[in-house]
Write a structure and sequence with these properties.
The protein is an alpha+beta fold and 135 residues long. The chain contains one helix and eight strands. It is globular, with a radius of gyration of 15 Å.
C-alpha cells in the first residue's frame, strides 16, 4: 500500500486540478498550517481555506463496500473540507461546520448519509460570506 502522504498528495492535486477546471483561482500555501491545504478565491481579495482528506478505497463490512469513511480531524481552521474518494474519482465539498467528528459517504452521491448533498457541490465555494446581498 502507498504511504498515506502519497495518497493525500494525490487527493490534493486532484482537487487543485478540478478547481482550476471549474474556473477558480487556486493557491497552495508553502507550509501546511492548521490543516489548510489549498486556498481558493471566491471573490475579489477573498479566499476560502480548504482542507483535503483522501481515501483510496471504500470501507468493507462482511466483504462488501459500505462507503468511504473519514475521521481524525486534527484542525478546524479551514472553511471547507473536501473529501476525495479515489476509487470513484468523486469529491464532496462540505463546510467544516457540518463535518462533526467524521463522515461517511457513498462515493457516487447515491448514499443515505446527510453529507451526500455535498457530492460535487463546487458551487458552494463561490459563496462569499463577506458580500452583502440587497433584498
Amino acid at each position: 500500500m502507498e504511504h498515506p502522504a502519497i495518497i493525500g498528495g494525490v487527493g490534493e492535486r486532484l482537487v487543485e486540478a478540478e478547481l482550476l477546471k471549474q474556473g477558480f483561482v487556486v493557491a497552495t500555501p508553502s507550509v501546511d498550517i492548521d490543516g489548510c491545504d489549498l486556498l481558493v478565491e471566491c471573490g475579489p481579495n477573498y479566499f476560502h481555506k480548504l482542507q483535503v482528506k483522501t481515501s483510496k478505497l471504500p470501507a468493507l463490512e462482511n466483504h462488501k463496500p459500505t462507503g468511504y469513511r473519514f475521521t481524525n480531524f486534527t484542525s478546524r481552521a479551514a472553511d471547507f473540507c473536501i473529501f476525495v474518494c479515489l476509487l470513484h474519482h468523486a469529491f464532496y465539498i462540505v463546510p467544516m461546520s457540518k463535518v462533526g467528528s467524521g463522515i461517511k459517504v457513498a462515493g457516487d452521491g447515491s448514499g443515505h448519509s446527510k453529507h451526500e448533498k455535498y457530492f460535487s457541490a463546487w458551487h458552494i465555494l463561490k459563496e462569499n460570506p463577506h458580500e452583502k446581498t440587497v433584498t
